[in-house]
Amino acid sequence: MDLGLTGRTAIVSAASKGLGKACAFSLAREGVNLVLNARSAEALEATAEEIRAETGVSVTAVAADYNTDEGRAAVLEAAPVADILVSNPGVRQIPGDFNEWDKAEWLHWLDVHFLSSIQMIQSVLPGMRARKFGRIVNISVSFIKFPQQNFAHSHAARLALSGAIASIVRDCAPDNVTINTVCPGFFDTDALHTNLHNHARRGNTTYEAIVENRLQSVPAGRFADPKECGDLVTFLCSDQAGFILGQNIINDGGVYQGLF
Questions:
Q1: Helix, strand or coil for residue 37?
Q2: DSSP summary character for residue 93
Q3: Among 54, 74, 122, 138, which is 20 to 30 Å from 145 by CA?
Q4: Residues 6+ apart with CB under 8 A from 101
């Protein structure tokens, strides 16, 4: 299937590894030129070179903090015309005690999981609407559908983003601009395994026991390949996905059992 993406330009944040890198690779394989962002210049340039070597597309690496005004400005300077935005916070969730969080803690997570994406969307949306094409995909987590204990700060910010998107997506739909959210479950990334090791330490158990426990909760019986997230995101950026608007799409191997 020709997704109609050849020659488009995409911004992908947190793209040096994990799900961001998988999204970047998948888009590049469809002929999309890339502006990649992450905080680590060395890791980001290594990923950029991998993608250039395999696909031949243009890849610009912008090492900056996406969660700051200065970082987003640097990304936008490198991509004055962006057809696609894949907004991936690239900051792993950290559990904590609700009773210990002060205002600064809440504001930090709002910056990471809500304001950084909203402000970038505000920046790219007018140009997308004027050109009559735009695809915006936010990377969230499956747990926004069934929030977990000790993650209230992260879930609140992510749900705020989904709520905001639901309010604005209908305004830009007539201009062939879509905004959707992909909500991954357990994907085989460094971030997942770091979290599992941390869970094992907190629970005074072994990493192997935690892995087995998590796999038992996944009807598909495995952790997902990051490519499965990248390819889903790429399809949502395609010509064929122009009728999909404001959705929170769960991609978790059947863990979530709700209908909506």
A1: strand
A2: -
A3: 122
A4: 152, 153
> For residues 152 and 134, what is the distance between their CA atoms, to the nearest angstrom?
32
CB atoms near residue 203 (< 10 Å): 11
Task: Enumerate the CATH 3.40.50.720 domain ranges in the chain, comma separated.
Answer: 9-187+225-251
Q: How far apart, in whole angstroms, are the C-alpha atoms of residue 20 and residue 88?
A: 7
Render pLDDT for 142-195 as a digit per residue (tens, 0 to 9): 988 988 888 888 889 999 999 999 999 999 999 999 999 999 999 999 888 888
Pairing of strands 134-139, 248-251: unpaired
Query: Which residue in 219, 36, 22, 259 sits closest to 139, CA to CA?
Result: 22
20, HSE (Cβ side, Cα atoms, 13 Å): 28
Adjacency order of strands within the sheet including 59-63: 59-63, 33-38, 9-12, 84-87, 134-139, 177-184, 248-251
CA-CA-CA-CA dihedral for 196, 89, 27, 24, to nearest 10: -70
Domain 9-187+225-251 belongs in CATH node 3.40.50.720: yes
Contact 32, 5 (CB under 8 A): yes
Note the pLDDT of residue 107: 92
The beta-strand segments (E) located in the chain are 9-12, 33-38, 59-63, 84-87, 134-139, 177-184, 248-251
Separation CA 197–CA 200 (nearest Å): 5
Residue 154 is predicted with a pLDDT of 86
103, two tokens: 């205002």
What is the C-alpha separation between 233 and 21, in angstroms, rounded?
12
